[in-house]
Amino acid sequence: MPVRDLVEQLRDEDPEVRSEAVDYLRLIATSEAAGALVLVLNDLEPEIRSKAAAALGSIGADAVEPVINYLRTWNNPLDPSIPDLLGKLRTPRALPILHTHIGDRDPEARAAIARALGGIGDREGIPDLLELLRDLSVKVRVAAARALGVIADRDTVDPLLDELGDDDPAMRIAVAEALSRIGGRRAADAIARLVAEDQSPDVRHAAEVCLRRIGTATIDPLVRLLAGGDLNDRIRAMASLLEEGRAAVLPLKEMTRHEKPEVRAAAAEMLGIIGEPGSVDCLAEASHDGDTNVRIATATALGRIRHLSAAEAVVPMLEDHDPKVAAAAANASGALGELSIEPLIRLLGSERDETRIRTTDVLGRLRHKGACERLIDNLTDPTPWVRIVSCQALGEIGENMAVDPLIKALKDRDAIVRAMAVEALGKLGDHRATMPILERLEDRSDLVCNNALVALGRIGNPVALPFLNAALEDQDPDRRVAAIEGLVAVRGTDSIPQLQRMARPWPVSRHPRRVRDAARWGLQVLEPIRREQETGRPPAVPGGVGNAD
């Protein structure tokens, strides 16, 4: 049928006739047909308007000129089908038309305008999209966010980030999708926060998909490089993964379940370096991996994530049957500091001796006073090494409530326990321990006696000076070195003449070299102290035993 006849039918009063004419013109698909179809874009029947717009869209490039010319002077309210048509035609010539109607009263029309701007994909449409991004209608805001994602211009990241606080979950999902298309570190970090913190499960799930979209293409090859043997490849891969930041987290989490243990270990390692608390769940699962190296990498990774959940996951690894894994877990627990205290205290009740020993050691390193009561209870543990590390821990913590229990421990049947109790009391510096420690100078264990000399000096009670000076004449060189350390700690300047004789070179001094070195060190410390006592000027204190030339 000729186009002229179809144009006549488009003016027919019967909607069915007009609709049929539209169908014919769509099949003709020429610029003349397009010129006819634009005439019914303002038809009274919504269905016909929509059919005409769809037909023009299917014609494509030949429809651009008639459509633009027809709509350039359009002053009527905008049917949503018209912006949809302009979006399909993808011509930047439509931008002024869309801009003119951006304030249309109908939110459906404004949403369609946003979709059209995205379909055109021209940066010139971004200002209008940013305005629509703040529209009162959530439907319009969602359409604008999606359109910005299609254009994917890095300059729109900040406005999109501002909209992540939108009350409507659909809007937060649309923003996450847009950011995932734009990509980049800041976009990935923002999406990762949604995954970890958003209250809506729908938003969290959608954000997780978006995060995977950002990361999967680049992360998988990097993790495989990281798992390889070439050092340069590992360094480059690590630097690239750190650059990706949160975008790498989700793919890395998935790779902790990889079939190759070296890949699982590398993924765990990088999750720890990135330090995202959202990684803890998969690392907790990896803590039960059948491969030792994976568990070691997992423990180390958890120790780098400053979050209570990481402490709750890594502390139980102190019970691992492999000592290397348990040691890594101990170091990780120590690195987490205060976060590990409560889980560690709970673990003191473990039935395994090795676990109680490691747990006590970590608590000592953390020097947390809240652990003192449990550590004091451990002084009566049936396992000697638990009692030993408990003494050491109490000495490191430095809480005076431990003095009396440690004095009781001086009579422990195990010599190392007694020695560590003496050492701990010396660190506490409480004069109440003076007499009990003096009694230990007659202990049958050399280690206990030597520790007692040093501890007496640290406590600083002058009553110890005669005992320390007498020990300088002991036949055991280690006893003499311990006596020197004690005298230095108690600032025993009266011993300087004897130390001078001991410090003389061989063969004038018959003392072994380690004793002569200790004496020289003692003189370096005590002689300035004596000058201070004589002149009132404070001395500079050198380093420890053996630092003398």
Describe the structure.
- The structure is a single chain.
- This protein has 549 residues and is an all-alpha fold.
- Helix content is 67%, strand content 0%.
- It has 33 helices and no strands.
- It starts with a helix and ends in a 14-residue tail after the last helix.
- The model has no long low-confidence stretch (mean pLDDT 89).
In short:
Helices cover 67% and strands 0% of the residues. The protein has 549 residues and is mostly helical. The chain is rod-shaped and about 130 Å long.
Average pLDDT reading: 89
**Spans with pLDDT under 50 lasting ≥5 residues?**
none
Number of helices: 33
Query: Which sheet architecture does the biggest sheet show?
Result: none
What percentage of residues falls in helices of 4 or more residues?
A: 55-70%
How much strand?
under 5%
CA(first)-CA(last) distance: 112 Å
> Which structural class best describes the helix and strand composition?
mainly alpha
- The number of distinct β-strands equals 0
Global geometry: rod-shaped
User: Which value, in Å, is the CA radius of gyration?
Assistant: 40 Å
Features:
549 residues; mainly alpha; 33 helices
Topology:
Blueprint: H1 3-10, H2 15-28, H3 31-37, H4 46-59, H5 64-71, H6 81-89, H7 95-100, H8 107-120, H9 126-132, H10 138-151, H11 157-162, H12 169-182, H13 185-197, H14 201-226, H15 231-244, H16 249-255, H17 261-274, H18 280-286, H19 292-302, H20 308-314, H21 323-336, H22 341-347, H23 353-366, H24 372-378, H25 384-397, H26 403-409, H27 415-428, H28 434-439, H29 446-459, H30 465-471, H31 477-489, H32 496-503, H33 513-535
Helix pairs in contact: 1-2, 1-3, 2-3, 2-4, 4-6, 6-8, 8-9, 8-10, 9-10, 10-12, 12-13, 12-14, 13-14, 14-15, 14-16, 16-17, 17-19, 18-19, 18-20, 19-21, 21-23, 22-23, 23-25, 24-25, 25-27, 26-27, 27-29, 29-31, 30-31, 31-33, 32-33
